[in-house]
Write a structure and sequence with these properties.
This protein is an alpha+beta fold and 343 residues long. The chain is built from 11 helices and 15 strands. The chain has 2 domains: 3-135 and 318-342, 3-Layer(aba) Sandwich (Aminopeptidase); 140-316, Gcn5-related N-acetyltransferase (GNAT) (Aminopeptidase). The strands form 2 sheets. Strands 1, 2, 3, 4, 5, 6, 7 and 15 form an 8-stranded mixed beta sheet that branches. A 7-stranded mixed beta sheet has the order 9-10-11-12-13-8-14, with helices on both faces. α5 (158-169) crosses α8.
Amino acid sequence: MPILSLNEWKEFLSECPNAHLLQTGAWGELKSNFGWQAVRMSAANGGENWGAQILFRKLPLGLSLAYIPKGPLLKGIVRGERDKLPDQSFWEEVDQICRSKRAVFLKVEPDYIFRENKNNETGIPAGFQESLHAIQPMRTIIVDLIGNEEEILARMKQKTRYNIRLASKKGVKVSPSEDLETFFELMQSTGERDQFGIHSLEYYRTAYNLFKSEGNCELLLASFEGEPIAAVMVFAAGNRCWYLYGASQSRHRERMPTYLLQWEGMKWARNASCEQYDLWGIPDYDQEILEAEFTSRSDGLWGVYRFKRGFGGEVTHSAGPWDRIYQPLLYNIYLRWVARGTE
């Protein structure tokens, strides 16, 4: 059970070309700056080499919470083979690390799309149970970036294509920026308007610097007549790009800057050799319900879905989350806490 250094983990990832953003060394370093500890490990498993970046969050009394976001990873895995998990010998290696950190439980959110098999089984690995609490969005929209720009635009809804072009006609300019202060001001404005929490300026700055230094991040700022009006921060890893953070001010929304920003984000992703653009987070409902109700609902992420669906991507549902329990009594306290939060 070798524990890997950051450089050793980056070497491991060099043979995992489709590793998720949240398993990258830079993401582990980001979280390590804000209350988590990243532990990277690898282990031989049935003739294969598996690895995981495990995040630990300290709890009172020397306890911790363990979390594997969008992992574990199989070394040498190719596109289309992410829906695979290691056998129990690998998880026993993980158990040793978690117990050494006095973890109450381990939460795993694997990086593959949920599909029931022909027996309607959920595919929960032995030793895990289905969790009531997801940390990452369970559903997202993934836009296919393969093809030329006109082909990608043709897959979008007509109104979205119109709004992308309208933004340019109405004088919206989009350019790369390093102005994290302006980005944070826009985030604050958006959070207050749409009533969601945001990270600190230092968090966004650290994320930008860690990934930008590797060429895997861009901050795009939309302006009108020199006034910043919207921005997005996008991240790349392997053949995928993620739109994680976006903001806009209330002024000039009729100029549709957010549509042009997403299109410019997709063009940046294509230049970074990405084939997929993950729009990151929509309401957790089946697509039939999403399509039936998006015009009449505005609570939660419904407005977000109304915007994102126009880009012509595929709605996907992630597998998990699964919990592996080490201290049942304390885990039951956690379950009661989760239950209160959903009432």
